[in-house]
């Protein structure tokens, strides 16, 4: 908050507004709520990978079909990423979060009733449209409440909830899918345990939407940018009251003065015919994308596009296939060297379910923990740029070693190493993505970059689906090479350690 409301010379959106409300209970509650939403996105994305070893029999899936199924949610995320990001910068973070989380949860739950592969694929696509909005908007929303000196650590803490969602999905899969006693026959549909797992995976998204709708305020930075000073002041007062609940000092600022005449001109409604209004709205929708690639933002935007493509192709292309690869290595050896077992796997029954597959998925998910702790402790000391570059190079090396190992135990160990190191890359990227762009472009920028990442994830899953049976080495070596390229590209980004959000 500004110290004196009459001081018009102070920057309109400086971090002083946030810093003077202190840091306390409000921020920890915000972390839990946003973290649960972030975890819900992880659950919805990763649940498909855990149901593949069983659902492939019920839906009669080939490896190519499984590649399309894992890619479908990313296609939806690509569509939803920019649309929801643009709307969040125009209509508000909170309302878009509510809608996108609800879309995610509703279509995710309905997918459990799909009797055929193509209907299941379509419903997973629409679930992805919701996920594509909530991921970038959550980080924009959360970062705009954070004091400058704590922002890096708090965003890293928020990113750790992805690990929590991953562990939750793996744990629920381990508990539910192997229990064939949960199966039910409804005449037109054989409701297997994996379908119940899909329903349970929609609960976090729906509960997050309800929490944001009932209890959470709008971002004060967005409210000030939208000239809604009274609402912004109310949010600041709420933050101050929660953070200073044991103190007797009064709220220090009676009002806000934050608008200039330039903003009035910029936000003036367009008059004229419907065609002119449509053209104006279309221009406004495309304007954020144009701003990302002109002037001082152009170079960082190009570098981030490269990094998002490389890490998304590598991480999602490999991670979504871990349970299936673990299943193929169940009898020992490496899944990429046992060609005869891979060729026979399509003729094997999915029942009884082999619980070791889900145990190994749970262990791999839990191995995120050291990387998350590392980033929370060191993000504000080292900075996101160095962490991103080093962790991507280390991830590249771990994937290459996964290719050369010869036993199942070695594969599991290196998969855990990849999990622990790659999460550092994602956490650093989450911090950099929020710090490199101003408030009016932040959600749109993250929407564009995550959209590009979804294209890469689609490509990675399709490539794995097409080649995992015939030549597993090609996708693994592609992943290793792309992660290395992303790590080198990260060196071209500016350092943002403890900078103010604009």
TrEMBL record:
Pfam families: MFS_1 (PF07690). SUPFAM superfamilies: MFS general substrate transporter. It is found in: Membrane. Residues 30-498 form the Major facilitator superfamily (MFS) profile domain. GO terms for molecular function: transmembrane transporter activity. One of its GO terms (cellular component) is membrane. Keywords: Membrane, Transmembrane, Transmembrane helix, Transport. InterPro entries: MFS, MFS_dom, MFS_trans_sf, Sugar_transporter_CS. It comes from the Eukaryota. It is a multi-pass membrane protein. The chain crosses the membrane at residues 21-39, 59-84, 96-115, 121-142, 154-177, 197-215, 302-322, 386-405, 411-433, 445-467, 473-491. The keyword Transmembrane helix applies. This is Synaptic vesicle glycoprotein 2. The lineage of its organism: Eukaryota, Metazoa, Chordata, Craniata, Vertebrata.
């Amino acid at each position: 908050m500004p110290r004196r409301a009459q001081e018009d010379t102070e920057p309109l959106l400086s971090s002083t507004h946030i810093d003077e409300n202190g840091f306390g209970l409000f921020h920890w509650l915000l972390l839990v709520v946003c973290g649960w939403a972030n975890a819900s996105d992880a659950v919805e994305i990763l649940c498909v990978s855990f149901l593949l070893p069983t659902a492939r029999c019920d839906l009669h899936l080939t490896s190519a079909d499984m590649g399309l199924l894992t890619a479908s949610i990313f296609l939806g995320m690509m569509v939803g990423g920019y649309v929801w990001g643009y709307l969040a910068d125009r209509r508000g973070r909170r309302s878009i979060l509510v809608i996108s989380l609800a879309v995610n949860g509703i279509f995710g739950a309905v997918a459990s009733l799909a009797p055929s592969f193509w209907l299941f694929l379509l419903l997973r696509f629409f679930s992805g449209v919701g996920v594509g909005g909530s991921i970038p908007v959550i980080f924009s929303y959360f970062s705009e409440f954070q004091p400058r000196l704590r922002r890096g650590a708090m965003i890293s803490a928020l990113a750790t909830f992805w690990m929590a969602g991953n562990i939750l999905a793996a744990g629920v899969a381990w508990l539910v899918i192997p229990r064939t006693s949960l199966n039910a026959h409804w005449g037109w549909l054989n409701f297997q345990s994996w379908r119940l797992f899909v329903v349970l995976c929609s609960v976090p998204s729906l509960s997050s939407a309800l929490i944001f709708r009932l209890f959470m305020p709008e971002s004060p930075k967005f409210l000030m940018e939208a000239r809604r000073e009274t609402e912004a002041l109310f949010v600041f007062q709420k933050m101050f009251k929660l953070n200073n609940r044991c103190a007797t000092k009064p709220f220090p600022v009676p009002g806000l003065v934050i608008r200039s005449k330039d903003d009035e001109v910029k936000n003036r409604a367009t008059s004229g015919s419907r065609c002119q209004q449509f053209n104006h709205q279309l221009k406004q929708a495309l304007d954020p994308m144009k701003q990302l690639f002109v002037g001082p933002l152009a170079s960082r935007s190009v570098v981030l596009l490269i990094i998002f493509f490389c890490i998304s192709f590598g991480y999602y292309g490999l991670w979504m296939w871990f349970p299936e690869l673990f299943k193929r290595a169940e009898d020992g050896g490496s899944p990429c060297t046992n060609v005869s077992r891979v060729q026979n796997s399509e003729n094997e029954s999915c029942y009884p379910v082999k619980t070791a597959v889900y145990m190994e998925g749970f262990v791999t998910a839990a191995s995120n923990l050291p990387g998350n702790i590392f980033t929370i402790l060191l993000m504000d000391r080292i900075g996101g740029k160095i962490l991103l570059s080093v962790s991507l190079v280390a991830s590249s090396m771990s994937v290459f070693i996964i290719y050369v190992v010869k036993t199942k135990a070695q594969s599991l160990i290196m998969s855990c190493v990849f999990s622990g190191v790659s999460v550092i890359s994602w956490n650093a990227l989450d911090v950099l993505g929020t710090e490199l762009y101003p408030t009016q472009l932040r959600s749109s920028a993250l929407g564009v970059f995550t959209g590009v990442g979804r294209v890469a994830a689609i490509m990675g899953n399709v490539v794995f689906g097409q080649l995992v049976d015939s030549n597993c080495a090609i996708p693994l070596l592609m992943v290793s090479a792309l992660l290395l390229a992303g790590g080198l590209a990260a060196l071209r980004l500016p350092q943002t350690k403890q900078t103010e959000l604009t």
